[in-house]
Structures are given as structure tokens and as C-alpha cells.
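Write out C-alpha cells for Flavin-containing monooxygenase.
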Amino acid sequence: MDYLSEIEGKQAHDPMFLEKMKESSSSSSSCLCVPGPVIVGAGPSGLATAACLKEKGVPSVILERSNCIASLWQLKTYDRLRLHLPKQFCELPLMGFPTGFPTYPSKQQFVDYLEAYARKFDIKPRFNETVSQAEYDPTLGFWRVTSVGVKGKEMEYVCRWLVVATGENAEAMMPEMEGMGEFSGDIRHTSLYKSGEEFRGKRVLVVGCGNSGMEVCLDLCNHNARPSLVVRDTVHVLPQEMLGTSTFGLSMWLLKWFPLRLVDRFLLIVSWLMLGDTARFGLARPHLGPLQLNNLSGKTPVLDVGTLAKIKSGDIKVRPSIKSLKRHAVEFVNGTTENFDAIILATGYKSNVPSWLKEKVMFSEKDGYPRRPFPNGWKGEYGLYAVGFTKRGLLGTSMDAIRIAEDIQRCWKEEAKHRLAFTNSLLHQSSSL
């Protein structure tokens, strides 16, 4: 019962608190009091928050359902993946990328960077622990976090602060399509796609025209497959670089001097000069500019890495939305039908927060995102925080992690003062007896 003595030091003035803990601990298989925050998720968001906390002298515990850090990057991404933004916009707080890394690091280089980051700050997540429930106990004034291990053993963590770092990409989104059970070919999400090598010579339909869908199509082309791309909606395609610099970096610089509307207009003019009219190839642009659309909906523009040239040459065919699947074919909404050997679903990911966090104020039950928009969605009530839900990539993650660490450090120092005052009071009382 070591955890009771830990909590007693914080809440010794409240006997009801201790009675409640003693009652609950008898029904729990294992229980641990965490002096600092519990962080759920050992991806870049969880690592960044733990590092910022450690730098401020606040310990933390990271719970990770997989067997490694950054499991999405290590286990659920394709081989040719590189960071879509320059490395200076993707580094985590307190540690930059090695100077020898290219402008756009590869998947393995980014994983190596994250592992070095964890080593530098001595971050050791508790792997293979899936959080099944987290709930604030108003009687205790603490969060109770239940995890399930590999062999089904439950563990309860009691903590003053809870950081949700499971992110925007916790679960693959699998759309429902008529006839999915009838299609005889391979249907898989991009989280299970590694390389176009296994699809060499095959007719592959890629559903989804975001950055992943576009890049998977290019990878299939490079492995002599015959890909087609389903474009269900409008999309902004921008060159990865403009005027000798990254499009993203140029946008950030222009926004310091000009209103968003003018920057959007500039980006579209330069894109038209460099890429031509993408609507001619089945890639119609939205009415809103790329930056405005991203701010309002979180929908990021596609940064072209060579896919558009393959579409222009006819190596990649653009197709409309799917109406239904047949045994060996796909029927599209325009009435045409084509045979395919496989379907790759580049349909994105979603948050899984509502499935385990028993809280309805900070997080939306509909989409699992903080209800308050950026930059105010990082902090909730009763010591609840969110990191990595900004829809602004690793740059947004770093901003969240820094804010959270500063806020928890302030609370940590205040509570330390109270504990010290209480201890001094006890010592004074004992000395006067």
C-alpha cells in the first residue's frame, strides 16, 4: 500500500480522502499513485510533453498500448514515407534534428530521432498497457486511470494530472462501401500498406486523395503497378517547394506580413504557374484558399512530390466516388465499371478518446477532439490536458507540450509549498508537546 502513503502526503488534511482510497483499493488488483501526471500515448506528443515536464523537474508516467514508442510511425506507415514539411518545423522541444539529416527526413530517420529523444530525456514508457478507462473522481480530487496489460492484468493509476496524447491518428478510418464483402481482391487501409512491390503488375484502386493517397499512388507507379485514384472531393494540390524554399515555410513567412487571404491568393497563383490547372486532371480546387480551409476544417493541402506528373502522363487514372463493389470490379457513381485486383483505403485516421475517457466537457464525444479550437484546446478542468490535437502537425504538438509543462509546473510548485507548510506545522506542533 505504498501508494496510500504517497497520497497521504498530499491529502493528509482530508481523512475522508484516505477512507475512500482504502475502500477502492480493496477492489482493485493493483494500484499505483503517480506523483506527477499520467500521459496516455508514447508518440511524439507524449514524448514531447514528458521531456518538457522533466526539464522543469516534474516526473511523469507514460502509458503506451503498443510495444514501442511512436507505434504509428514504426508499425503503420509505408516504407517510402518522408516528412512532408522541412525538419525545422517538425522537431520536438529542447532537441533539434541531427545536422546531417536531409531537409525532409525519411521515416527511419524520424524514428531514430524520436528514439534518441527518449534516451536523452530518459523517457521510459510503460509499454503494452492499453488504457481502458480514465475518469476523474471528485471525492478524491484525482484521476483514476485503468490500463490492461498483455495478459489481461488490470492496473489502476491515481494521479493529479492527466495528459491525453493519443492524438488525431489513433484508429484507422474504414469507410462502409456497398459490396465490400463481395469483392474478392485485397482491401486494406494504408496503415497496413508497406510497399508497392507486392502489387507489381496489378490494378490497384486507391481511395482518398490526401497526402497519403497521393504518395501511395506514386509508390505503386514506381513498382510498376497500375494505380487509379478515387477523388471524392475537392483538393488543393501545392508544390512542395516554391521559389527555392518550402511552400510551408514560405507561407509562414508571408503570414507575418500579409493577411491570410492575400497569402492564399499568392499560393494559388504560383501553384497554377508551376502545376497548371489541376481541375483539368480531375483535381478541382475548393472555393476556400488552402490556408483558410486548413484553419476552418483542419484539411491540409496536398504537397506534391511527383504524383501530379504521373496523373498528367496517364500513369495514374483519376476516378470519381465508388457506388458499389462487385466480385472483381468496382462500379463508380458515373456509371462506369472497372476491374481491380486490390483496393487501398487512404481514408485517414480518427481519435479514440471517447472510447476510454469518461469526460464530456473538454472533449467532443462526436469526433474525440477538444471542443475549444486552437490555440485554446490544450487545457481542460481538474488537471486534464490534451496534446497533439491541433490539426497543425508536430509544430502544434510542440506548442501544446510547452504550455502543458509550464502549467503543471506552476501547480506542482504551489502544491509543494502547501505540503511544506503542512509539514512545518506538524513539526511545530510536535516540538511544542
